[in-house]
Fold:
Amino acid sequence: MREYFELVTTDTLPSESPERLRAAMVTTLTEQGYIRSPEVQAAFAAVPRERFAPEASLTAAYSPQDVVITKRDKTGRATSSVSAPWLQAEMLEAARLFRGARVLEVGSGGYNAALIAQIVGPEGLVVTVDIDPYVTERAERFLAETGYPHVKVVLGDAEHAAEEHAPEGGYDAIIVTVGAWDCPWRHLLATSGRMIIPLRFSTITRSLTFVHDGDRLRGLDPTVCGFVAIQGVGAHLNQEAALADGAVTLTVEGGPTVDVAALDQALMGERAQLWTGVTVARGEPFDSMHLRIATVDDRFGMIWRNPDRGGDLVDLAMRWFCPVLVTPNSFAYLTLRDVSRDEEAGERRWEFGVYGHGPSRTELSRQLCDHVQSWDRNWRNHSGPDFSLYPADATVPEPADGRIFRKHHTQLVMAWT
Structure:
């Protein structure tokens, strides 16, 4: 495919043309390792992404790292989007699609379905399901306009809508493009198939590639990601506390019922502070910390600040997916401070710290600090936990070091070895 990219990136193309931007996007995704196969490369080069995101500028549509929001609810929260190209490429590579493959996509929009259709060809089967008629109408129209009218667009609840369209022997690949708390599609996957699903547990989302392995599905290559939450029967609501009129939000999956008024008061009150002695460099991954704390503490959740509000109410270690421990009336979250001594002598580093609010702020801050230090000592250089997905009625032994997340259809086992 290199000849193709040399052709379409010549100076004969206008600098802001869709073709030039598309070629630049594909080149970037390939150089950064998200695109690894000629089939996926050719699909990204062929499908006009801008046609599926008319509300975005050409530059925004072809930004390799950015999502395009296509619909929001009355509160402003995104309910439909075109995922970031890097993540779409990762998921398509994980699916290992081939000519003639039969593929189910859960969560529509059209662009990803077009990429899939480009890879599997007209002899393949692509079924894309969404619960929102606004989404399916757009998807069907955009697919027809761009040369993929054979993609089967289904309006319905993904919990059951894909059943009647499943081919004999099951789908060769199931690609889920919404944040799913559970997995009701296990029985639709062919024996040799691969299912890529952004699975939610303990407020964490990891895109996992599941393959059959005896009586379980074995989870491979957990990838940090964020997706619009699934709607319909499969929806699962975490406990959520919007503080300071929505400037700061806490979310936790289980545990005792949180007292929003008490937490709101805690935010405005005295703050505890601890520093962990654990440092991180720019670009250094530490996402296994989230998994480790969620393994040992069911008070684990996430905190985020409204980017347009909040001011200095909180000082979070990261804008999204920032860990927090939450009790009914107190919380403690992760923060960072610059501890670089001499930037010219070495890399710049930041130290993890903890800020706590509420009556239990000191104790909760110490516990979160201990979790971070334990992760640093014992698990920081570990490859991470193993994931397995079992049917809900299976007898699953408790892992020696891990946790079982029990859901309606399945049991997700996270085990550290």
Summary: The first strand starts at residue 68 and ends at 72. Confidence is low (pLDDT under 50) at residues 1-13.
